[in-house]
Amino acid sequence: MKSASLVVRVTINGKRKNLSPGQAKQMGVSGTFYMRTWEGGKEKWKAIGTDPSQARMAVVRKEREFNGGGRIAASKTLREAIDVFLAERSVQQDVKTVNSWRNELPRFEKITPKIYLKDIDRSDVFAYWNSYKAEGAALRTIYNRVQSLTTFLKNQGVTGLLKHNERPSSKRNPWIITMRPTQASLTFFSHCNPEERLAYLFFLFTGCREREAVFACWQDLDLKNRTLTIRAKLNDKMRIRALLFVASGTAP
Question: Is the whole model's pTM more than 0.70, yes or no?
Answer without folding.
Answer: no
